[in-house]
């Protein structure tokens, strides 16, 4: 199992790569979209700005979206989850549009949200099987899918309840950082990759 971590200028690539390697898969960190979509799974990593990331993916948008729509498993983490959506209030640029909806700013006095937060009403199997109930977040923006049935978990920050995870087929998005969420978070990544292998 080769899992591509697409390097579009986001941070935290190598802690994610360590988590992938710990699962027994091979992490391939690459900025080459052709190499990324030749792998068995695609991971869109987490730390960075929406506009900057979309400026990278614009040139390869059709390659990425067609690969995902043709069945390539994809895990979007934090910013990576937001890139699965259409647009973001954070900045210019167009997301991949895999999950119809928008990204909005957190409605809270304390933004960004940085730290541990509980997950609730979780139905995402990769999360429930890993025992992950509290995860590490670092975000100022959250996703609003047009179809609420795609939401597989929730979290609340200062009264603002938002999707902590979404799923559409074999595409999973998580607003938190599983690679920073202790052993249960690493187990969640392993569960996703095991699902890809099946």
Fold and architecture overview:
It is a single chain. By secondary structure, this protein is of the alpha/beta class. Helix content is 28%, strand content 31%. The chain has seven helices and twelve strands. It has helices at 13-22, 33-36, 50-57, 61-69, 79-83, 125-128, 182-197; strands at residues 2-6, 26-30, 41-44, 74-77, 87-88, 101-105, 113-118, 134-139, 141-145, 151-157, 160-168, 171-174. It is globular and about 40 Å long.
Mean residue pLDDT? 95
User: Termini, distance in Å?
Assistant: 11 Å
Largest sheet: 7 strands, mixed
Low-confidence stretches: none
Strand order of the largest sheet: 2-1-3-4-12-11-10
Q: Into which percentage range does the β-strand content fall?
A: 25-35%
Radius of gyration: 15 Å
Q: Which structural class do the helices and strands define?
A: alpha/beta
From the spread of the alpha carbons, the general shape counts as globular
From the 3D structure, determine the CATH topology.
Rossmann fold
In CATH terms, what is the architecture?
A: 3-Layer(aba) Sandwich
Query: Helix amount, in percent?
Result: 25-40%
What's the level 1 CATH class? Alpha Beta
Please count the helical segments: 7
Q: Helix and strand succession?
A: EHEHEHHEHEEEHEEEEEH
- The count of strands amounts to 12
């Amino acid at each position: 199992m080769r899992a591509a971590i697409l390097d579009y200028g986001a941070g935290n690539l190598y802690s994610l790569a360590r988590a992938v390697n710990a699962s027994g898969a091979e992490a391939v960190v690459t900025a080459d979209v052709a190499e990324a979509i030749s792998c068995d799974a695609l991971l869109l990593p987490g730390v960075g700005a929406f506009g900057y990331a979309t400026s990278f993916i614009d040139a390869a948008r059709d390659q990425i979206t067609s690969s995902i729509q043709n069945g390539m498993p994809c895990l979007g983490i934090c910013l990576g989850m937001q890139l699965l959506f259409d647009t973001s209030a954070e900045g210019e640029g167009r997301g991949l549009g895999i999950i119809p909806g928008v990204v909005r700013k957190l409605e809270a006095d304390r933004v960004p949200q940085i730290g541990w937060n509980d997950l609730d009403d979780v139905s995402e199997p990769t999360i429930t099987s890993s025992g992950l109930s509290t995860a590490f977040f670092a975000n100022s923006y959250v996703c609003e899918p047009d179809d609420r049935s795609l939401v597989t978990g929730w979290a609340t920050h200062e009264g603002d309840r938002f999707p902590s995870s979404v799923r559409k087929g074999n595409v999973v998005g998580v607003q938190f950082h599983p690679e920073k969420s202790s052993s249960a978070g690493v187990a969640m990544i392993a569960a996703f990759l095991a699902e890809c292998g099946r």
